[in-house]
Amino acid sequence: MNRKVILDTDRLILREFEEEDAGFILRLLNSPGWLKNIGPRGIQTEENAKEYINSKLRKAYTELGFGFYLIELKSGGESVGMCGLVKREGLDDVDVGFALLPEYEGMGYAYEAATAIVEYAANILNISSLSAITIPSNSSSIKLLEKIGLRFSKMIRIPNDPEELMLFTNHQSIKL
Q: Residue 68: phi, psi to the nearest 5?
């Protein structure tokens, strides 16, 4: 299998998702943190997960040239989460997002991956203006978004999402 590596950091490899990652996607999208902070995606089987990988994740690589990437540990190759960029309906800017399996939270992996993605967006993709969204109760995501240079902008609603969300942007902190 030819896995396309996008980035590597001190401890992590970020690569494109493949159909073979269906079992991991099934676990991640049904983990308690995903369901609480992001919401259900209706992925209940590995077949659903393969369809999600192809229709959402891999489609973005082709259509946009970026997307969400699988986060793997360099040390043992474990799949621990996803991080990347998405062009979301209802948002002007490209959106940075991340999610980890619960057993890998609190170890700095999301920060390491998100920092690399922000640098990749700016230096490789020439995307200087980024945003992110989260629910107000997700304090760990809020802290991480602030740590990577995004600041709270306003409360918003996006299409097909019932909740009011916090919008974070880097407009006031663009580094030249």
A: -90, 140
**Cβ(83)–Cβ(95) below 8 Å:** no
Cα–Cα distance for residue pair 173/159, rounded to 1 Å: 27
- The number of residues in the chain equals 176
The dihedral through the CA atoms of 172, 88, 92, 14 has a sign that is positive
Count of domains forming the chain: 1
Domain extent at residue 118: 5-173
Specify the pTM: 0.93
Choose among 21, 23, 3, 22: nearest CA to 13: 3
CA proximity to 80, closest of 33, 131, 38: 33
83, 114 Cβ separation under 8 angstroms: yes
Cβ atoms of residues 166 and 133 within 8 Å: yes
Average pLDDT, integer, range 21-39: 96
Q: Is the dihedral of CA 175, 98, 70, 62 positive or negative?
A: negative
CATH number assigned to the domain comprising residue 18: 3.40.630.30
Q: Is the per-residue pLDDT at 176 higher than 80? A: no
